[in-house]
Amino acid sequence: MKFVEVAGVRLSAVGLGTWQFGSSEWGYGSSYASDVAPRLLNRAIDLGINLIDTAEAYAFGHSEEIVGRAVKGRRSDVFVATKLFPVVPLDPVVGRRARGSLRRLDIDVIDLYQVHWHNPVVPVRSTMMAMAKLRREGLVRHVGVSNFSLPQWREAECALGSPVLSNQVKYSLIDRGPENELVAWAQANDRLVIAYSPLSQGLLSGRYDLDHIPGGMRGATPAFLPDNLRRFAPVLSVLRAVAAAHDATCSQVALAWLLRRPNVVVIPGASTIEQAEANAEAAELELSDDEDQALTAASDAYHPVTGVAAASQIVGVRAGRTAARIRRAVEGLAK
């Protein structure tokens, strides 16, 4: 496993995201949380993955409980990161929520406690003062943020009076907003960008195209609209070509492309143990400069349908699926 070191912290370049642990919307089935998730997490640790990311908002705390049970007895092998749901993130509330996460995780200290989103109503200073208090009490080792702009990240650090170690943001080959400012600032200041959704909810896995559209919540998101799948085809073509050259998967190539960026780690989720193993192997995949440039150029040329146009198409897709379900139900009753 490749590691990234920032501010005295050594983290696996490939971590494990656990949004799907205990969450029914992913469609992984009832046995996933009780059987697959714990075994998957322990296999990830065996492979050298030490960054485990969860949040109190994931399955209303159930994800934290699953992580806590799985890492019991292996605490020294993992760097546990969780996130504060930022509703009224003031001192008493932050303290209660942190202790709730500690209880569900069944640990004594949170390695990285992140503010899940910026709250536009509550001043960052108030939240960071509460975070600083948790650190003084020994309940939190490091403070991070998530979905913060660079000005918000810097404001949080100023309010905390010490490093805000990381900013967890949506970042992938086709979601490249963090490159504008965040990655460069992290590199210059010994900070970390944690890339969530590094495979763009599976779009970069190479499994999906116009003939293969995922079901569940992903199937009616902008990324998987027919128009966007058509526009994505050139990116997919380059991904497949690079993957073939390395006897790798498209997912591994997409992760390896991200890991060439300085001060960046990735936290893909996984539906199976085999998928977690393949994600871990991506840390060892070395892309050439030419391959990196080809992937970047394909990404530059990808312009998906967004905004109102995408929303209207999503409504159409959902309406079509509802009509199809009603039609099947009627046909079933007629038999």
Describe how the helices and strands are arranged.
Blueprint: E1 3-6, E2 9-12, E3 16-17, H1 31-46, E4 51-53, H2 62-71, E5 79-84, H3 91-105, E6 110-115, H4 124-136, E7 140-146, H5 150-160, E8 166-170, H6 182-188, E9 192-196, H7 226-246, H8 250-259, E10 264-266, H9 273-281, H10 289-300, H11 307-334
Parallel strand pairs: 3-4, 4-5, 5-6, 6-7, 7-8, 8-9, 9-10
Antiparallel strand pairs: 1-2
Helix pairs in contact: 1-2, 1-9, 3-4, 4-5, 7-8, 7-10
How would you briefly describe this protein structure?
With 335 residues, the protein is an alpha/beta fold.
CATH evolutionary superfamily: NADP-dependent oxidoreductase domain
Widest sheet, order of strands: 3-4-5-6-7-8-9-10
Count of individual domains: 1
Structural class: alpha/beta
| E-strand count | 10
Classify the beta-strand content into a percent band: 5-15%
Task: Note the gap between the termini.
Answer: 57 Å
CATH domain class: Alpha Beta
Oligomer: single chain
Low-confidence region ranges: none
Helix content: 40-55%
Shape: globular
* Average pLDDT score: 90
Give Rg in angstroms. Answer: 20 Å
H/E element sequence: EEEHEHEHEHEHEHEHHEHHH
* Architecture (CATH level 2) name: Alpha-Beta Barrel
The number of helical segments is: 11
